[in-house]
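Q: How would the structure tokens look for this protein?
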Amino acid sequence: MAAIFVLLWSILLLAGGAVLAHLIGAASILSFVAADRTRFLAAIPQRIIAHVDLFSIMSMPLFILAGEIMNRCGLTQALLDVANACMARLRGGLGHVNILTSVFFAGISGSAMADAASISNTLVPAMRKSGYSLEYAGAITAASSVIGPIIPPSIIMIFYGALTNTSVAGMFVAGLVPGLLIAMALFAANAIQAYRHDHPRGESVPARETLRRLLYALPALVVPVVIMSGIVFGIVTPTEAAALAVLCTILAGLFYRQVTLSVLFESVQRTAILTGSIFILLSGVAAFGYLAGLEHLPSRLAVLMSSLGLEGWRYLLLLNLVFLVAGMFLEVPVALALLVPLLAPAAIEMGVHPIHLGIVIVVNLTLGIVTPPFGAALLVVSAVSGARYWGMVRAALPFLIAQLLVLLLLTLAPEITLALPRLFGFA
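A: Here is the predicted structure in token form.
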């Protein structure tokens, strides 16, 4: 009865606009009282400090800062120009350019929303001018933004690593192949749509101009190379790689003559706001996780799932559904904070590798932002570009189907995800 009261009170506060981190913390404290575990409340501050005082989690604000600087310092146009030189000559070329630009963005910012907003301002008008429908241009922009959090660096992977004590470096390495597979699936879907709807070819850029654009974009392209090569070969930790990413992004911005004190101040200010919101959410989750451990909730859930015959890949398929729906309705950090401490330990106890589980969860949550009826990336692109939302939804369905097929492959074939981490000693 007490548990039902706590649940109803939490729903009422959430509907009233309460801050989710405060709500999670308050509900956790009330749950301690309801479960007659009040004697353990004195240990909560220590549990919160232990939950956030991790060396790997220090990389989160630094990667956020690198992405904020990138979006303000001219790297966007340089990456777009080199993608245009490489892919525009193909049929449906600007669609391919859109996808390739997202791959480049992913290696620096790791943010789907930043990707969607930036490309909506630049490529969507260019695609419309070249003869694409506004809805198709918006749909492929939203669909390709999914790549951002999957190809490292990824804020979501750092958050997952902090929640489950999983190697962030291992998660980064594991994200490379799934991210590129999703990009290849989008290229294929765009090529099919280009031939079905007779999409135009873009400009054919001469070899000399392609080389010039490549050299000009080199400072932007070198950032993800530095990050991943340093992590893969053990030269730097993810936190040191994040600091290096900030330095490289500033140097690239100086090369493009876009770095000013106001730009740096705005980037740091935005980073502080985002980091603060994430850390207070982690603090609320720490209290909930402590109670879940005391009550053996993950073990009980694992026993329940086993009794229902939902073990191994069957349980993973269930998690796919849960996290995909959660990604449609909740912000990604919120969905991670609410669901991972409860559902992930049961999967790991069943023998699912935590790195494989993390990649499956990350892909599900990011696909949720392009899944109707409440896909956040679709809403952002619609607001920025002026494209009709439901028209974009229809145009995005072939891309979403291609991405879901990749997700199913990743779920059922864990070696696709784990091969690189094992090769480099992270799994």
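DSSP finds 20 helices and no strands in the chain.

Residues 37-423 form one domain.

Upvote if useful.
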